[in-house]
Structure formats: C-alpha cells, structure tokens
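Bench notes, bay 3.
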Amino acid sequence: MEGCFASAYHPSTIGTPGQAWGDKEYKLWRDTREKQRCYLTEVVPKVEALQLYKTKNKGELLFDVFPYGVLAHEGDGADPSEFPLLAVRSRQWCKDKPSVLVTGGVHGYETSGVEGALLFLSDGLAEHYSQHFNLLVLPCVSPWGFERIQRWTAKGTDPNRSFNPDGEIVAGRSFNPEAATDESAALIHFLREDMKHVTNWICHIDLHETTDTDETEFRPAKEARDGLMDGGKAEIPDGFYLVQDETSRKPEWFTAMIDAVRKVTHIAPADANGDLIGSPMSQEGVVVIPNNRILGLCAGVTSAPYRTTTEVYPDSPNATPQQCNQAQVACIEGALEHILSVEQQLCTTVPPKTT
C-alpha cells in the first residue's frame, strides 16, 4: 500500500541488529507509528448503519450489530480510551442453517479486507445469502492497526499469528505462531462464549491483502524485532490469490472462488519456481500452507471445513481500490455459491442465486 509508512523511525532502525527488542524498543516502535485514519469515524458509523438495513420484500430488519469486546486504544491523550469491536449478524439466524464467518481487518492496514466485508454486507448479497446461511461478519478485527496502517497490534505482535500462541515454532518457517493478542483473545472469547451455541460452522473466509510494504516495511520490522539477520527480499505476487489449508483442501471450492474473482481482477501468476510468495501451489492462484490452527491463523479459529485466507494485491497498476474491494466480495460470493451447489442437504431449500 503506497504511503503506508509515515514515521521518522523505520522499524528496521530500531534496536540493535541481531538482538531481539525489549520493552524500550517496543515502546519506541509503538510511539512512532503515526495515526493516519480514524476507526471511530471511518469504520464504526458504516457498521452501525447496517442495523437499519431492511429486507427488500418484507421490510424487516436484516442485521443485528453489537460489540463483541473492547480494545484499549493505545493512542495519545486526544483519543478515546477504548475501541469498540463490532460484529454484524444476520437476524434470520436459525439452528438448522449452516453458519458462515467472514473476518476483515485482522491486519488493520489491509484496507480491502475491511471495505470488502462492509461491501458484502451493504450491497444486497448478504441479504440473499442469509436465506441459506447464518452470517456472522467481523469487519475490522484490529482497529489500532487500521488507524496506524500497521500489520501488527499496538504491542508489536502479528495478530494473524496469534490465534494459537501454544503452537509449534519451526525454525526458518515464515508462518510461525506468536503470542496471544487482545484482538485474538476478544474474537476467540466471543466465539467460544457468546456464540458457543453455534456448532455448525461450514465456512470461514478471512479477508487479507499482500502489499509492497510487506517487503519494504514489515519483513524488515520482524527481523529487527526478533533479532534476525536480513533474510532477503521476497517477490510480491501481482494479483489475487488464496491460501489453502493442507488439512482441508476442497480443490473445487478454491477453483470456484478463483473463477469468481477472475471476473473482477487478475489472478497472481506463479513465480519462476512455480511457487507463490515462497509457498507451493495446488492450482492457479492457490498456495498451500500447514494447518491454519497450528500456525495461529485467524482462518483456523473455527472448525469450518471450508476455510481460506484471501490475498488481494492493492499496489498493482492493474487494479483500483474499488476492484480490490469487489474482488473480496466476488470471492465470498463464489465460495457460498459453490457450497450451496454441493452441500444442498445442509442448506435451506431456497435455490441458489443465478447470475
């Protein structure tokens, strides 16, 4: 994302090379991440407005909007002390329908994750799919990262590695679990306590981006934070791709999502080694990684058999911000259409949407 970094301190210059950060370095990093946009004025009003949306046919309220937690702001004195963490749930909730979870903004700097989740809720698709599924959408899991346009939380932890802090650390692996965060703890508590009655999760789509700053800022930041040597710059794929859990392949489902997104934006090609972002591919636009839950990824937070992480490339000269948002929505639509076509015994008898 162009213009992401706004600080006199590039994170790679913080601390002593080869030594992991201590409290002093973490504080310096946090205090020098500048606020660039406002969650309370740019996201919260859009989410709260959804509670007034009504069904087209009967004029009934479509969504429940409610807080599932609060997050310390970690800002300056001019900011409120807490962020409300907001969830949107379809009101036509029924124990006989399978349940779908969509999460956005786990990495707060990945704008189309937030905007794509909101677009799915507001453009009529959620109304349609709520006839078939129970829908739960958390549009912005990491408000501090959204405001600072940062990958990490205010405590310097990657939230999308924090959903299994007891997971195995494998030396040299790019995907390793990290410590629990307030963001992941709030989401896990919400699912295990407030939503514990839900035992039929069928799908979880976690909306993300891969950006140029992953290499120019966030990889060097991780190396400085952890006292690692420069591992060399990786190639950022130009285009959309998906992350596949090796323990739940569902190849036809991934094909359906890629084909849906292809109508909106281009799919990332393989690199010279036939890989994407350093990972092996199972098919066009799909990389395979170990079990999401073991790695501490948000996509592993439920037992849903259909689970994936999306990756939009917002820095491509061939894609606009609008296309990036629409690609996230197209992926959700393709995912749910496929599930309707192959899991009819689990869904309602309402016929699938035709396009």
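Next record in the batch:
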Amino acid sequence: VLSSNGEMVYSGPVVDLDHFLSNTPNLPEKGASDNTADYILDVIIKGGDSVVEELIRAFEDSDVVKKELDLLRQVYRNYGSDDEDGPGDTHHLLKRRKFTVSYGTQVSWLSKRHLKNTVRQPFLVYLNFISTAVISVMLGLVFYHTNVNFGGIQNRMGSMFFIVLYLGLASLSSVPVWNEHKLLFLRERASGAYGTMAHFTSVVLFDIVPMRIIPTCMFSVSFFMIGLSSTTDAILHFPVFVLILVLANAAAVSMSMCIGACFPDTKIANAFASLAVLLTIMYSGFILSRHTMGAFSKVMSNLSYMSFAFEALLINEFHGAQGYYFDSYADKALRVNVTGDEVLALFDYNANYLLWDMAAL
C-alpha cells in the first residue's frame, strides 16, 4: 500500500495488517464490521499528511519490515555475499552462481507448470492424438493392402510421401510455442528464477514430446494396413519406420519453432513457416524427378528435411526386398520381376544412405 506520494505505507502478509494497525497510534477507530483494506485506504485518503507520516514511521519500525530485512540478508548470504547487512559488491555477486537452485530443480518445477497447463487444456491434446489417428486410419483405408506391381510401388511411395507431408503441415502449429509465454519467460529469467536452458528443456519434455512427437506413432496403424515391407520381414522394418517418422517430425517441429522464435509477430512467423514448408515439399524428391534436378535443385534438396525423410522411408521399404514386378495395363501378359534395390536405382536412390539420412534428420 502506497501513499499519494509513492511512499510505502504497508507491505507484507495480510494476516499481519490488523496487528500493525492496532499498534499504530493516532489512527481513527476501526469498526468491527469495517473491511481492513477499505479502512487503511480511507485513513490514507482522509487522514491527512500527519496520519500518513505516522503510518510510514510505524511501518518502518514494525516487525514486518524486520522480517523482510532478515529474509533479504539470508538471500544475500545464499548468493555468497560477505556483507550480511546488504548485497555488498554487485560485481562480486554477478561472478557468483546465478541461480540458487540447480538446473534439475529448475527443470522439475517448470515441467510441473507445463504439465498443469497441458492438463487444463486437454482439448489440444485430444485434437493432436485424434486427428493423427483419424488420418492414419484413412490413409490405411485408401492404400489398404497395396499390391507389389508397378501401381503398387507408386502407391507405396505416395503413402509414405503423404505421411511426411502431413508431419510437415502439422508442424506449423509449433510456430507460436515460444511467443506464447515469451513475456513471462523474459521477466522470470531476468529475476533469476531459472535459466534459458531449463526453460527450453521443460518445453521440449512437456510440450513437444507429448504434443508433437508421440502422436506420430499413430502411423503404425497405416504401416500394417497398407502392408508396407510386406515382401520382407515387416517386424524388423517397423521400428525403423517409426524412428524415421519421429526424427522427421522432430526436424519439422524444430524448423517451425526456430522460425517462430525469429519473429515477434506470430502472423509473420506463420507466413514464413508456410513458405519454408512449401519449399521442403517441392524439393522432397517426390514431386521433382531426381534424374532431372539441376545443381540448384540438388542443393535445395539437401536442405530439405523431407528429402532425407522420404529417402529413408523408401530405403527402409525397398532395400533387400524381393517379389516386386513391373506390368503393363496395355499388355496384361507383360511382367518384369524386379528387386527392391532395382526400384530404388530406378528413382536414383542409394540404398546405402539410410543411416546418413537418419543422421541428417
């Protein structure tokens, strides 16, 4: 509570306010039914300068101020100051540890807050999981039990490109993640409550992982419905399939979050992020033939995370596989048996680049 001149009249626990007022002399009598907050405001406004000055002096000599000073001295001692009556040398304090709690404690408390925010807004969680599950089932129904002929090869490639495309578009929801609580973060960090790395870690653990990464595993339904890796051991290829999608989603989310952090205006950030996603789609290797790519297109393809993700999925699907064949709709009798590696070579994909693509993601 401040006076009209900005001087401190009272600052402390509400439960101590009545005791403080009762021990201050020369104040108007407070009725039993009077609200304490209204009473002290009336005293400050109507009591005159002499009464206000009496309140200020009483507050400076009160037990409340003594308790606050003891607390400040304890804080100074925790920060390593040799002066128990004050902060001492400011430069000395800055050279000491910045936070009074460890990095793990900061992450723990920030994670609890993010978890509470997630629980309070369950609709967004449901939306991420349900929408991904619905898309996964619909994709499985469209490409259900895809054949191993030429049309089936195209369908397999198309289904995997669609998954990568969906992850790229869904990552746009990560653009405003940093800007949503930017002001709160700047104020709390400036006050020494926690550091930037602790904030980053907690956001990754309790926003990106449950909201962006885990729903990606829903596409395991599509994997078995479509019949991917049906000509090889699907059980061995399935974990690699899921890992590639998780890495691709992490790359997509990271790009969107990075763009969002670069622009204070979310609308501008969304526009740039959308353009970036379109460019990654264009140079993903599905729309533009790798055989006809010029030097510039190859450079852009190497900058597109979708290119690495799509290539990794194709290698996981076709490398070492047998039983594919090319046929013709004009001549039903025509049939040319091919291996999965020959399919990769036809579209200019190197079967030995799986680990490289996953490392790039």
